[in-house]
């Protein structure tokens, strides 16, 4: 057709070149847009991953600032909520361990003091019996505390098993 009508042939050739050039420009634009978009998304995901690593090391103060109004922002907000709950749980656990240690030290110190007194001093049998009775009372107190701690541990284990069952669901 180009040979028959040179002007139409030139027009068609020009159109083909324009279409080819437009296609190449659009493909480059799509590639650049895709690269930019993937860099933005992976950067936001890297922030979450970096915070996860810090939390794994025990730093529960890590919060992720995501910005935006998309699924990654929702994920970041959920992550922050989870981190705050972990931090609260860790503080409660630490306080509990400290309190439990303190409560267990008192009867142990009493038992130690009473038994040392029996061994170090020449006492009449009635005083020794009184001290041994006190040692028994303190040992029973330790026994009750230990039983409470064990039942608490069992209750926490049962609660987490129930939670797993609920999460897994039917």
Task: Compile the SSE list and pairings.
Elements: H1 6-56, H2 71-120, H3 125-168
Helix pairs in contact: 1-2, 2-3
What spatial form do the alpha-carbon principal axes imply? rod-shaped
Class computed from helices, strands and strand pairing:
mainly alpha
Helix content: over 70%
Order of helices and strands: HHH
Q: Give the radius of gyration.
A: 37 Å
* Mean pLDDT across every amino acid position: 83
Query: Which percent band covers the strand fraction?
Result: under 5%
Q: What characterizes the major β-sheet? A: none
Uncertain stretches of 5 or more adjacent residues:
163-170
Number of helices: 3
Number of strands: 0
Termini separation comes to 71 Å
Descriptive account of the structure:
The protein is mainly α. 85% of the residues lie in helices and 0% in strands. The chain contains three helices and no strands. The protein is rod-shaped, with a radius of gyration of 37 Å. The two termini are 71 Å apart.
